[in-house]
Amino acid sequence: MRILQRNGHGHIRFYAGVRMAEDDAIALCDAGAPKARARMARAFAIWAPGLKRLLDEGDFISARPMYAMPIGARWVTHPAVTLLGDAAHLMSPFSGEGVNLALADALDLADALARGTGIAAYEATMASRAKIAAAGAAAGLASVFSKDGPAHVLGRYRQRIAER
Fold first, then answer.
1. 0.85 cut: is pTM over it?
2. Residue 73 CA to chain centroid, in angstroms?
């Protein structure tokens, strides 16, 4: 998986990702930049030279494991305690819904408290919305890190262009 992101001041941030066992990812986090760079160089050895330069010449490299709660995760409601945002529905960033869900959670929780409908009502609404987004995030993650590489993502873009 590769992502390029244009940032301010003429900088480009480059993300490259691979699937690996959680223990290996944690060990890579603690290993430091030279070992992380070497691991990524092995993972992306078949890349074109121009792309491999991004790994070789980048000025910062680190490993960042991704975590997600199970889709549809719920808990026993407590009348005085609840969760919202990532604490309530941690998922990969591949649905692009994180901040939107957190803002909707905050609005729904405030509304439930103001109306006196209680935390259980808020949690039901939040869980329903989060389940849909989490399924989308899991599907996005699976397509980006698939054996077909970017074919699925490119197919979606081509379909959108054709629909214009």
1. no
2. 17
pLDDT digits (tens, 9 = 90+) for 87-107: 999 998 888 888 999 999 999
Strands (E), the chain: 2-6, 12-16
Pairing between β-strand 2-6 and β-strand 12-16 as defined by DSSP bridges = antiparallel
Over its C-alpha atoms, the chain yields an Rg (Å, rounded) of 20
Residue 100, phi-psi category: left (phi > 0), alpha (psi -120 to 50), beta (remainder)? alpha
d(CA 32, CA 128): 40
List pLDDT tens digits, range 32-42. 788 888 888 88
Q: Do 102 and 86 contact (CB within 8 A), yes or no?
A: yes
